Amino acid sequence: MQIDVSDIVNYTRYNQQPNHVKFVGKIVGELILALNSTSPKESTFTRLDEIFKNVDWRESFIRPLIILHFEFLHNETVVYIHEWLRQKCADIENISIVSSESHLKKWWNNWCSSMHQKSFSIIELLYIYTDTCINMTFGGNSLIDNPNIVDEKLNNLNYHYSYYAGTQHFNERTYIGLRVAELIDYCLFDSMYKLPDKQSIIDYVEEISYYKDQPTIELISNTYDKIVVDGNFKTTSIKTRSQHRYENFEFNNFIWSNDQCCFANIARETKQDCPYSAITEKSLRPFWYHNMCIPLCYLSVDSLEEYGFKFPHDIFDYSYQYEKDFHTRITKLINSLTLFVKDNTIQHLRNYYVNHLGDFMHNARTVKGMATLSEHLYKGT
Q1: pLDDT tens per residue, the chain (381 residues)?
Q2: Beta carbons within 10 angstroms of residue 206's beta carbon
Q3: Where are the domains of the chain?
Q4: pTM of the predicted structure, to 2 decimals
Q5: Are 177 and 163 in contact (CB under 8 A)?
Q6: 352 Cβ partners below 8 Å, 6+ apart?
Q7: Which residue in 140, 78, 142, 86 sits closest to 106, CA to CA?
Q8: What are the beta bridge partners of residue 354?
Q9: How far is CA 72 from CA 6, 272, 335, 368, in A?
Q10: SS3 letters for the chain?
Q11: What's the CA angle centered on 314, arms 313 and 318, to 5 degrees?
Q12: What is the CATH topology of the domain spanning 136-371?
């Protein structure tokens, strides 16, 4: 099915329907919340029923129907959507989902083939709302056109890397946070809400390691005891926030200031355990602020390089990205981080930034190019 980007823009911004297809609705974050429930499948079905309660799916026998999905789309959720649509009177092969992340389409086609299933198609448009992300979640201020860019970056650079834990999937985000905090003297990061209790984290690690990694469990337990008190980090380099990001939340107040003090940023997507390379605006943000990007998802570096981004393989080992298993991937990431902080002093990283300024500028302009395309399409220019 051929969909013109301008059709999506005209619908999302002006509620204009094209002649050859019909947009039936937009999903933002509702299905992410469903994954957090005790019954994710039933919760997903309930939310889909509510979102599309006024849609007559029989129209799919007449013309293509399009669902817009502008948030992280987990593979588990895609299967639930498939099962939900199979219960409708619909030509499921004449339905498409527009996704704002990358490399989901290939995985979905393989899944349908291996399961001998007919289903909807996936349309990938990573850049479809990059302009909105820059203005809202990136803070809007770029280093691209700043005449004092080099001096400001060098003056602020005092840590090797930063990490923002996010607001979804508490056990996963806390597990990653406790692992990166093994190198606490070299990093800064923020955590929304209090942490789960230690036993919940231990149970989670046992599950994702298939009860075969007692050394990491002991390490997690010791790190938790060392830096967590009453669900809050007690170290000054990690902040625990109590407010929700949609309630009087201003990104520029703390998250981006961390990025400016660090050479690299660990880019955590909403979930990291997808069997494909999940890339959304979260993986683009480090480039916007001239940080070295350390994405966590499977094959994420290769995928971002396909979009033209440059990675410093000479100072960081990105081989962890090839591990499909999430726990193994994070363990290898910690090994890469350990070598990174061991082999590179802050002064060396300052020199590296100056000597490779062109690459950092290139990456920021690549994000800007995506945003410019998106902005022009939205504005009709």
Answers
A1: 566 667 777 787 778 888 888 999 888 777 877 877 789 999 999 999 999 999 999 999 999 999 988 777 888 999 999 999 999 999 999 999 988 777 788 889 999 999 999 999 998 876 555 555 555 455 545 556 566 777 888 888 999 998 877 666 778 888 888 898 888 888 887 766 667 788 999 999 999 999 999 999 999 999 888 877 766 666 555 555 544 443 444 444 445 567 778 999 988 776 677 777 777 777 888 888 889 999 988 888 998 898 899 999 999 999 999 998 999 999 999 999 999 999 999 999 999 999 999 999 899 888 877 765 544 443 433
A2: 15
A3: 5-125, 136-371
A4: 0.81
A5: yes
A6: 263, 312, 315, 344
A7: 78
A8: none
A9: 22, 11, 28, 21
A10: CCCCHHHHHHHHHHCCCCCCCEEEEEECCHHHHHHCCCCHHHHHHHHHHHHCCCCCHHHHHCCCEEEEECCCCCHHHHHHHHHHHHCCCCCHHHEEEEECCCCHHHHHHHHHHHCCCCCCEEEECCCCCHHHHHHHCCCCCCCCCCCCHHHHHHHHCCEEEEEECCCCCHHHHHHHHHHHHHHHHHEEEEEECCCCCHHHHHHHHHHHCCCCCHHHHHHHHHHHHHHEECCEECCCCEEEECCCCCCCCCHHHCHHHHHHCEEEEEECCCCCCCCCCCCCHHHHHHHHCCCEEEECCCCHHHHHHHCCCCCCCCCCCCHHHHCCCHHHHHHHHHHHHHHHHHHCCHHHHHHHHHHCHHHHHHHHHHHHHHHHHHHHHHHCC
A11: 30
A12: Rossmann fold (3.40.50)
Given a contact cutoff of 8 angstroms between Cβ atoms, the answer to whether 264 and 291 are in contact is: yes
- Tell me the two tokens of residue 218: 């002991």
Q: Are 269 and 170 in contact (CB under 8 A)?
A: no
Dihedral sign, Cα of residue 49, residue 53, residue 55, residue 61: positive
Distance CA 273, CA 208 (A): 10
Residues in the chain: 381
264 closest CA partner among 282, 281, 239, 287: 287
